[in-house]
């Protein structure tokens, strides 16, 4: 399926504006259109490449506008309510073929506690042993973009890169939220927002239980990567997990988490001497959107150059996802960052981290296991260490395991022998002895 266009007579579902595109992000641009945003030849080449890579995320899977549109009964619903519930035809997806898969639209909560529609996928394992119920895992995905066309549930494999599929293969039932603003466009996506992304994750669990009553274990846990690692860290500090409405939350696994984006930007810039080559520089237009999403939309971003801000308008215009968004500022000096001291002087980044970051001195309610590669070009491990120390100072129980030589994605599979048994123990009810501890592993072939 990967990379193969997959069009199934969907024309009637598509809005007229994109009548010739299978997905809202399958757009083409002319030089004239993008030059208005200051995107010259080099920028156009990067953009073309970025959009191509974005398309590969979805594998040509059609975007079902009907499903992502707000449900007619949204206005009377409560958080955790299921608004839409549909099975997938698994043979149209590229996922382990024994699974059954569904998608739901449900109600989450927004920045002022208001109800917001969100969508999620759910997978069920083929079986459990007699007398057992499938264990329920909430999966929190990593960066895929900020525009509504970038929903993981609209991808041919639900945006797997050895992430949620590891849980499914281990026999867990998985609910994977898209987060609000991805898929449904009722509100702007709250990018790298540990507080609000944890809300979406929390309510996805309640919605999954309402969609499948009495199906799952009472115990549930969460696992997330990158942005989703931040969501899981936020979940451990979200007082909702102490209640019984969701069942019994038993802890979370945060892989390469973006818990504190001010520190992250700063540490990464320090390491790369703001060369603009840092992979994380690619995330700055997205982080700017994350800040705008909790401020008036026209808020001027204090760490982006004017040129970068202008070009960022292309993200919405062309419905860019992860790679496309990163490509618009790639050829600018310092990749569009205003100056070498722009991050450390950014009040917006500081405020955002304080308000919506994790490991800000809040009390955590459950254990957290954090796994981090030491050659991570996206989430700098020194920033994760800062978050770890802040959490421990607040009296929380965090285990941080460092993996020398590993970049952002390899840590997912490299650490499976550590986090899978950790989850298994929590589900079996083994009392946690975890205290704050930091450990550095040794790779087989040395480092
Ligand atoms: C964009 O261009 C590609 C090939 O260059 C083409 O296959 C596709 O249909 C075009 N998309 C739209 C929306 O015109
Ligand atoms: C939001 O989505 C609806 C239906 O899915 C669409 O009709 C509408 O144009 C979209 N609004 C924006 C601002 O993109
Ligand atoms: C909303 O409507 C759908 C479709 O009719 C239904 O399945 C769902 O249960 C309703 N949800 C609520 C909360 O009323
Ligand atoms: C599921 O998709 C496959 C592949 O496109 C198709 O052959 C099959 O008829 C579909 N099944 C149903 C029940 O729609
Ligand atoms: C992490 O911090 C140490 C100590 O300050 C420094 O030597 C190292 O270069 C930093 N590494 C990265 C990837 O930022």
Automatic annotation (TrEMBL):
GO MF annotations in UniProt: triacylglycerol lipase activity
Domain of life (superkingdom): Eukaryota
SUPFAM superfamilies attached to this UniProt entry: alpha/beta-Hydrolases
Gene Ontology annotations of biological process type: lipid catabolic process
Family of the protein in this entry: Belongs to the AB hydrolase superfamily. Lipase family.
Keyword Signal: yes
Protein name, per record: Secretory lipase
